[in-house]
Amino acid sequence: MSDTQDKKQDSGRWVLFSLIVFFVVFATVDAFFVYKAVTTNVGVVTDHSYKKGLAYDDFLSQAAQQSHDGTIGEAVYNDADGTLALTLTDADGAPISGGIVVAHLVRPVHKGYDFEAVMHYKGEGRYSIRPDFPLIGQWVAYIEAKWTTADQQHKRYVTKKVLIAE
User: Fold this and answer.
1) Per-domain residue ranges for the chain?
2) Whole-structure pTM value
């Protein structure tokens, strides 16, 4: 009978030891994750987020309107020479010239590196620029084109994701 009691005592100690080890490992892993979360915060916080949210609603309504006017804006990023280009054509396929085109280049994961660049007209409805990206990685180009025809002013918004490898 004493052998059975010793085995029960040993298994009880083993269960207690296993529980303690489990919770120590669990607490250690949690502490590590908390440390990494606090020390690697990139600070992606938007100032005046409510106002920017309202402005984004306006942006969405303008984007929905632009699909009805027949203009086409196609953005392309060329990795070989680092050129970001936008080609604008009207409903008849004729190139649009004389516009003001601005690229708002945003790095989604790092605050403080966003910048704007004016795109230059190169002919046949093509506007381009060779932006100097300060960091490698993913960028988003929000391109805004404005031009005037005889009867009204026009706007076109185009979004292009850009991946900078080097």
Assistant:
1) 1-41, 49-164
2) 0.63
What are the tens digits of pLDDT across the range 14-61? 889 999 999 999 999 999 999 998 888 766 667 777 888 888 888 777
What is the C-alpha to C-alpha distance for residues 59 and 76, in angstroms, rounded to an integer? 21
b (16+ CB within 10 A) / e for 60-82: eeeeeebeeeebebebebeeeee
Question: CB–CB of 88/72 below 8 Å?
Answer: yes
The structural architecture, per CATH, of the domain 49-164 is Sandwich (2.60)
Tell me if 100 sits within 8 A of 146, measured CB to CB: yes
Report CA-CA distances (Å) from 149 to 14, 51, 76, 103.
Answer: 83, 31, 25, 22
